[in-house]
């Protein structure tokens, strides 16, 4: 990959950074994911994130923006999480992503970008009840077959579905 550097790093180092609020890792590919991240994170941008999900113990209630394009994430987290401040989720071109999270714990989400997530097949039904969501980009999410049956997204301005070739009505 041009411009990408592979690095070895002890992932336990992140567990000692308890006051970390911003983490940005770009143009570096790390072979393993962190065991833990700061619960104080407000901004997380990690291109090529190497794990199948965020660390199990991570509390995401302070997080405002989450950008993890080209990651190996299969799903963001397991179970229900409260992320009341989270406004942006960008998982574009995360080819292993299979499902979106439950959106009921993310009441302030404004932008959802799983564009190019070719393994994505499940969009959580709670997305359809999201009142503040303004932008959804599902372009080239070709394995998505259904969308939530009730779409009550009153703030929605852009809903891109180009390339969702298996979508059924």
Automatic annotation (TrEMBL):
Q: Which InterPro entries does the entry link to?
A: Disease_R_plants, Leu-rich_rpt_3, LRR_dom_sf
Alphabetized, the UniProt keywords read: Leucine-rich repeat, Repeat
One Pfam family recorded for the sequence: LRR_3
| Annotated GO biological process | defense response
Database matches in SUPFAM superfamilies = L domain-like
Q: Does the keyword Repeat apply?
A: yes
Among PANTHER family, the record links this protein to:
DISEASE RESISTANCE PROTEIN CHL1, LEUCINE-RICH REPEAT-CONTAINING PROTEIN
Q: What is the protein name stated in its UniProt record?
A: LEUCINE-RICH REPEAT-CONTAINING PROTEIN
Organism in which the protein naturally occurs: Salix viminalis
């Amino acid at each position: 990959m041009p411009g990408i550097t592979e690095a070895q790093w002890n992932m336990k180092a992140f567990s000692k950074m308890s006051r970390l609020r911003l983490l940005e890792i770009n143009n570096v590919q790390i072979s393993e994911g962190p065991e833990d991240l700061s619960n104080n994170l407000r901004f997380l941008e990690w291109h090529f994130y190497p794990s199948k999900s965020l660390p199990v113990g991570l509390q995401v209630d302070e997080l405002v923006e989450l950008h993890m394009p080209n990651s190996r994430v299969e799903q963001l987290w397991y179970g229900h999480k409260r992320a009341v401040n989270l406004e942006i989720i960008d998982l574009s071109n995360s080819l292993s992503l299979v499902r979106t999270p439950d959106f009921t714990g993310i009441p302030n989400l404004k932008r959802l970008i799983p564009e190019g997530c070719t393994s994505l097949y499940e969009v959580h039904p709670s997305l359809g009840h999201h009142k503040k969501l303004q932008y959804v980009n599902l372009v080239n999410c070709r394995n998505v077959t259904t969308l939530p049956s009730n779409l009550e997204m009153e703030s929605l301005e852009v809903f891109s579905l180009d390339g969702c070739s298996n979508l059924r009505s």
